[in-house]
């Protein structure tokens, strides 16, 4: 960002970048940005809106802080040293569903589509208005909270012999008094989780495609390929015929019991 753009968004008095006390009840935003002045401006505006912040100056630090602090949202610059923003976003998506807003000087549609396909929740092009970024952060946080589990709802998902922990990204099958930890790809994990949320319902291939394969796949037969690979991993531990095929419609979980 050029100096004139920094001046345009700089508050009258920019407080030093800081991490608010852990006891604070407000959301924690991880700012992954290699330009300190931009990070300070964003932190000042977010703090004024009651949000806590922590700063990562490079992609590797962003991944470490994300793992250690589990922020409520990540503001992620694309052009980061050590590990670029695309790779950081991909790893965050592999870990779970932390909301991510991309910050970048690249305004080409192909770059926006790439971010959204990998799993970004929003996309802001530099130079930006810091107040608008805060508004987008609050909007994404509201959507995330509305879509997330309600108070008292267990985080671990269970259906029949299956158990999934979205927070640790672990899928387990309980059979014959033994527990088997599945080695699943991200897509296989998403497919299994989707089927587990309504184990008796039959999902069409299109529904599974739209819900679990956001990376750009457009062919419904791609779902069949991923389901086939998931089945083979289940068969290897003795859980055969799952998920269940419903001819002409799609798939349902099946209990395995």
Task: Report on this structure.
The structure is a single chain. With 257 residues, the protein is α/β, with parallel strands linked by helices. It has two domains: 3-147, Response regulator (Rossmann fold, 3-Layer(aba) Sandwich); 157-252, Orthogonal Bundle (Arc Repressor Mutant, subunit A). Helix content is 41%, strand content 19%. It has nine helices and twelve strands. It has helices at residues 3-9, 36-48, 59-69, 85-95, 109-118, 130-147, 186-197, 205-212, 221-235, and strands at 28-32, 52-56, 73-77, 100-104, 122-125, 157-159, 162-165, 170-175, 178-182, 203-204, 244-246, 250-252. The strands form three sheets. It has a five-stranded parallel beta sheet, with helices on both faces. Strand 1, helix 2 and strand 2 (52-56) form a beta-alpha-beta unit. The radius of gyration is 21 Å and the shape is elongated. Residues 1-25 and 150-154 have low confidence and may be disordered.
Tags for this model:
Rossmann fold, single chain, alpha/beta, 41% helix, Arc Repressor Mutant, subunit A, five-stranded parallel beta sheet
